[in-house]
Amino acid sequence: MIGFALHAASWENITYGKGASMFDLLTVEIADSLVRDSVAPFGQETVPLEQAAGRILHQSVKAERALPPYDRVILDGIAVRWQPNLSAFTLCGTQPAGHPPITLPDAPVSNGTASAIAVMTGSVLPFGTDTVIPREHFKIAGDQVTLREGCLPSKGQHIHPRGADCEAGAILLQAGIRLTSPEMAILAANGVSHPSVTTIPSIAIISTGDELVAPDAPVEAWQIRRSNDYAISASLSRKGFTRQALCLLPDDLPRMTESLATLLDQHDVLVLSGGVSMGQFDFVPKALTALGVKTVFYKVAQRPGKPFWFGLSAKGQPVFALPGNPVSALACCSRHVVPALLAAQGLSVAPLRVLLDASLTPLPTMTRFVPVRLIHDENGAARAQPHPMPTSGDFNRLGVTHGLVELAPGETPLPPGSVVPFYEW
Hints:
This protein is 16% helix and 27% strand. By secondary structure, the chain is an alpha/beta fold. Helix 1 packs across helix 6 and helix 3 runs parallel beside helix 6.
């Protein structure tokens, strides 16, 4: 498990307003700030380069040497010492890629013929040459090369000069970026065989409720198949949080408390769904409190997802307790859980800004989340096509959507073309 250091976090001194308490509704912005300030960084580890793709870089990377490290030939052809009006050459050697540079003979030009060396793409430029003529620009017979009609070489052409990309020691990568294809190439090209990356936390994804059964289990008329944990798992996995354990807890306070104690011993982060509303069997807050998990906040002025609970264990482990309704759970995960965990890995990415494709009306006193499908207009701009769900339990039609947009509280409808933040599932 990751070692957590408890923050002297801002939530300990948060002011909710005159006569208010930590159990009053928070704005989305305050809830977001409290979560991010409370979740400690996950630390770092060193991994072999072949295991680093998709991870968050925890170090800066400098150029090992000037890039390219030598005058590099860009095209197959011949390397020559440029002189005006030359059209014929005699081959006197070959420069393969990956071999030390050979030297162009210092022979005088005679009868309009000069020396040339055959070169390959990526090879070092031979000593004594300064120009490359591509293979398609000349004819060759034995060791004699004749330029095609109209070929007029310019001095220095088709050479990638040493240090043109960067000098030795230049910063190429900064900490806090995800390692995709270009970054992996940069690491490899600069001798970083074991990069330092942010640790992936171990996350327990927990569904609660006696009404839930497994996807492959027999289901009675009064039961439903569990789905929240699979949706949350997918949302976390696509962001690189692949160390997961999925489990189901019953609506039984002693058994739930015992199981949560074990999960806190085994994992760095807990993400629960269900059991956080005001029902008789909503035991999650009681069980967590009994285990010393301190409530940071409960309930946020957002729809869907109002009964969102967040706390910290005695060791500083973040515990997210999301509503049980599927749309609510996924909205809270996409808007709050994923961004907070990414920030704890050192990756802070602003949400995508998209244009509404149709008018939407915000809520007067709460932030509204609306599922949308992204489409692209003729100019390539991302437009959000709204797909409001009738209820927060109606998730079967979410398959046509890509995420949700966030509408700040207000009473004036937002017209098509309004710019709003988007969070993907």
